[in-house]
Amino acid sequence: MTIDNKTNFLFENPQITVNNGGHLIIEDDAELYTWFDIPFDGNIVVNYGGTIEIKSGATLSLSDDGNISIMANSSPVGEMIFNQGAAIELLDENTVLNIAGDLTIANNATFTFTGDGYVKFSSPGDDATYNIFCGTGSSMSFSGSVINDKVLEVYQATLRLPNMSSISFSNCKIEMASGSPGRRILAEGTTDFSFNNVKVTSDNGVYNGHRGLYFYNQTISITNSQFEDGLTGIRAYTTNPLSISGTSFVDNSKGIYMLNSGIDLDGCSFVDNTDFGLYCTNMSLPSSIDNCMFVTNENGMYYHGSTSANIDIDDTYFNENENDGIQTSGGFNCNLECCYVTDNTQYGVYATNGTKINPYKCDMSGNYHTIELDYGSVDLNGKYNQLQALNDGYTVYGDSPARCVCGTPVTQNCHYNRWASSLSTGPIWNVNYKLYVSNCSFPPTYLYLSDPYKAYQTC
């Protein structure tokens, strides 16, 4: 059936049903109305084996509680074909395009819609299911006016976004439904992917275990966005560094789960995440964190990498995390400048497996232990840090590698730092620090810290 003119149904709750073998074509002169000049507010149902196709130049417009349902109630599933130059209008908040079946985006077409409604993907399939298929040069674009304008609901296990020329979201909200496994969006191929002023959240406003966004080697731009209430906000495996700015991660298990390459964060916040705000493993490229905030998480961040994965952290707060502010593992440099690593319940910094911690003009006070070393090291010489631990406890504790003859104590200069509530108090072994040389257990070898100057100057 082809609709190529103005059509008035003239009765309430009209419905168009496309059954198995049917093909509904919307041509460029088609106009659907429930009553004269009242946009269509009924249902278009495309059952299994049926197809609706929106031709170039055509606009399919629905209003009020109107919806288009592409069904997957049997095989083959229903299908929508969206051609280059086609348009969809979902005029009101309750107007929905529900795709349980397949969406085919034709060559050079940009799948999008206008209006206050939203698109829902609801395939009953598992994580391996594909229900978006794309032609050459195709793309997707979703936008609203403000960050709370809902444009997309993910009601299926995994919404796989195949290789396209680009995928963009701006000034809008994506709701992730509850379900097992947690719902996720997975970008594939080498698609350019951009997020600007977008909220990704649960569909009920509380934690529901959704899996957020998964990226694999796309070119990614994420700015001024929010990721909430999920198992992860973003999980990424990339060969190029992932860059994110002005974005918050709140009430997730892990805000960001990053594997491989590097990460650059600017002006981001991680708050109330129940495992880690940021979790990075197998990092291989340099990373940077600037002007960020890690507050009241279980742990602020974990960073594991090779010797090429140095990380620079500037002007960043790690405050009041339930366990540690920063955890590291690997033989790289962790450079901290003008940071506030304060009032974490356990350790301000916990460095293992060869990490060298280099703080400069940092306030690292109020932690149970300021810096905990497990075959890690720290350079405090001439660094002007406030190191005072909770109740004047251990500022530096653990074991650190050093050149020595086992059994012969080693002294390390740590000039110009604050060690205790009294500025005149320097480092005192087994009072405000306790260090041994790694791999010198028999006999144990003391590592002494020396600071005759005792001064600090935080930024």
Describe the structure.
By secondary structure, the chain is mostly beta strands. It has no helices and 51 strands. It is elongated and about 95 Å long. The mean pLDDT is 96.
* Share of residues in helices: under 10%
Helix count equals 0
Q: Write down the Rg.
A: 28 Å
Low-confidence stretches: none
**Shape, please?**
elongated
Averaging pLDDT over every residue, what do you get?
A: 96
Q: What's the number of extended β-strand segments?
A: 51
Describe, in short, the structure shown.
The protein has no helices and 51 strands. The chain has a 24-stranded parallel sheet that branches. The chain has a 14-stranded mixed sheet with strand order 20-22-24-27-30-33-36-39-42-44-47-50-51-48, with no helix packed on it. The chain has a six-stranded parallel sheet with strand order 1-4-8-11-14-17, with no helix packed on it.
Offer a few descriptive terms.
459 residues, mainly beta, 24-stranded parallel beta sheet, 14-stranded mixed beta sheet
List the helices and strands and how they pair.
Blueprint: E1 2-3, E2 6-8, E3 15-18, E4 23-26, E5 31-35, E6 38-39, E7 43-46, E8 51-54, E9 59-62, E10 67-70, E11 79-82, E12 87-90, E13 96-99, E14 102-105, E15 110-111, E16 118-121, E17 132-134, E18 139-143, E19 150-154, E20 158-161, E21 166-176, E22 184-187, E23 192-202, E24 212-216, E25 219-223, E26 226-228, E27 232-237, E28 242-245, E29 248-250, E30 254-259, E31 263-266, E32 269-271, E33 276-283, E34 287-290, E35 293-295, E36 299-305, E37 311-314, E38 317-319, E39 326-329, E40 333-337, E41 340-342, E42 347-352, E43 356-360, E44 369-374, E45 377-378, E46 385-386, E47 396-400, E48 410-413, E49 417-418, E50 433-441, E51 444-450
